[in-house]
Amino acid sequence: LVTLEMQFIKAIFLLSCLLILGDTHVNAGGLDLFKTLDCAEIVIAAGGEVAVKLVPLINDLSKCVNFKTDLNADLDVKGFLDVANKFLKEVSGNPKCLQTMLDAIKGIVQPYVNQVSDAKCLPSF
């Protein structure tokens, strides 16, 4: 049985080996592992920040479109999908509120997009 502690030790060992290799890594087949890991770190940070701020953004959006639902409802999957469908209809009928939310998301993500661009994570076409 492999414990969580053992998994951490293995991860630390692997990262230590990668650090020891440092600049001696080989760019095999055009794939730079360190650059890929740096780019993945940027994307994960962006996703994490959006995930943390998504619930408050959705709350603001529901207030903007004046969406009300029964807070005491015991929703099954079908009930949840019905509420989500009604919410999306309200949002699509109010482009001003939707644009406000998209602008907020852009404000959150834009610094990470700049980092991805500066790090040249995406190949130029």
TrEMBL record:
Sorted UniProt keywords: Signal
Protein source organism: Drosophila mayaguana
Domain of life the protein comes from: Eukaryota
Gene that produces this protein: Acp2a
Protein name per UniProt: Accessory gland protein 2a
Presence of the UniProt keyword Signal in the record: yes
Cleaved signal peptide residues: 1-28
Record InterPro entries: ACP53EA
